[in-house]
């Protein structure tokens, strides 16, 4: 078999066999197929698309290119959650303890942030002592003991996807449903869950800018999961503004803790309730209504917060910080961004808010960038709120005074005011559940 024949077949819109796709993926992962040939293959795929069967084969080939986590030793139905990325998205920190408190094991591998989106692992590491790297044995033992563990992704989890994504990024072949869906689902399948809930973001802070494109991506991933023997559901959710009030690592941990204590922002609490409900449904815990009741009881009784403390303690974190949120280190510089005129807050450029937080030190531009855990932004105003000129719209947190003015300018370009009160947008646009 030759790579050039596979490229020609995809160029000519022929359907590739599983053997051809395996040859391409295995050869490229092993370094036997050069970048220029894989680039040609990706462009042919980008232009001509893939069938559902081809996409499934591509996903399974990438999932099988490295480590595959065996969770069979974990008791019960294992349900994973994946977000397609957003600003202020701390839902894993809230949903994980809720679901575990309802008796469904959460064995989760998460990533770090890059660019304007934050990473769950970075947030967890802002808690003093929290360890995000466990051995597979420790990981499984902890899930069986307390019902939850959240760790960093294995360096060899779906390595083919890592190599191919880097190539897609520089060859203008990112925006293709089959390639996006196989990239996400290859890692989810390799991570070993029985079922996966997808939180597919849409809006100006998300990769998928329209509800239609987000639904199309979700349906593609659901089909892949079904073909691979996994149970998959999806919620299409709003990323036209940051999720909650806080953007930045320790600021988001504080807000997640407050939410688990029953004091979180309304929209964030609602979304986490619905995500948790859907995960319980996928685990076979009953109807949507019954699962929502279980979630609300776990929150209202304090069991979800206690499970959060149990998770942090099990992985070496200082739980005193969760009982007394003032113990989290504060940024040296905390300054307001003031409204420049009267009006109503009509919305945010969410991507721009994320960039402003990065400028303050909360994110990384490259994988080697050092993160300032205490840096970030806390929003005071939300779409529909009346705003007076000179009133604080947000607070900026940083330990670098030099970064402040640039971040303020970026935030100023990301805050939109209008004379009329905007029409409220839904938090969840659509639910696609099996």
UniProtKB/TrEMBL annotation:
EC number: 2.4.2.2
GO cellular component labels: cytosol
One Pfam family, short name: PYNP_C
The protein's enzyme class: transferase
Reaction(s) the record says it catalyses: uridine + phosphate = alpha-D-ribose 1-phosphate + uracil; 2'-deoxyuridine + phosphate = 2-deoxy-alpha-D-ribose 1-phosphate + uracil; thymidine + phosphate = 2-deoxy-alpha-D-ribose 1-phosphate + thymine
Keyword annotations: Glycosyltransferase, Transferase
Family annotation (Gene3D superfamilies): Nucleoside phosphorylase/phosphoribosyltransferase catalytic domain, Pyrimidine nucleoside phosphorylase-like, C-terminal domain, Transferase, Pyrimidine Nucleoside Phosphorylase, Chain C
Recorded GO MF terms: 1,4-alpha-oligoglucan phosphorylase activity; thymidine phosphorylase activity
InterPro entries: Glycosyl_Trfase_fam3, Glycosyl_Trfase_fam3_N_dom, Glycosyl_Trfase_fam3_N_dom_sf, Nuc_phospho_transferase, PYNP-like_C_sf, PYNP_C, Pyrmidine_PPas_bac/euk, Pyrmidine_PPase_CS
Annotated Pyrimidine nucleoside phosphorylase C-terminal domain residues: 344-417
Keyword RNA-binding: no
An annotated GO BP: pyrimidine nucleoside metabolic process
Quaternary data: Homodimer.
Record-linked PANTHER family: THYMIDINE PHOSPHORYLASE
Function noted in UniProt: Catalyzes phosphorolysis of the pyrimidine nucleosides uridine, thymidine and 2'-deoxyuridine with the formation of the corresponding pyrimidine base and ribose-1-phosphate.
NCBIfam families referenced in this protein's UniProt entry, alphabetically: PRK05820.1, PRK06078.1, Y_phosphoryl
Family assignment from sequence similarity: Belongs to the thymidine/pyrimidine-nucleoside phosphorylase family.
Descriptive protein name: Pyrimidine-nucleoside phosphorylase
Species, as recorded: Massiliimalia timonensis
Lineage of the species this protein comes from: Bacteria, Bacillati, Bacillota, Clostridia, Eubacteriales
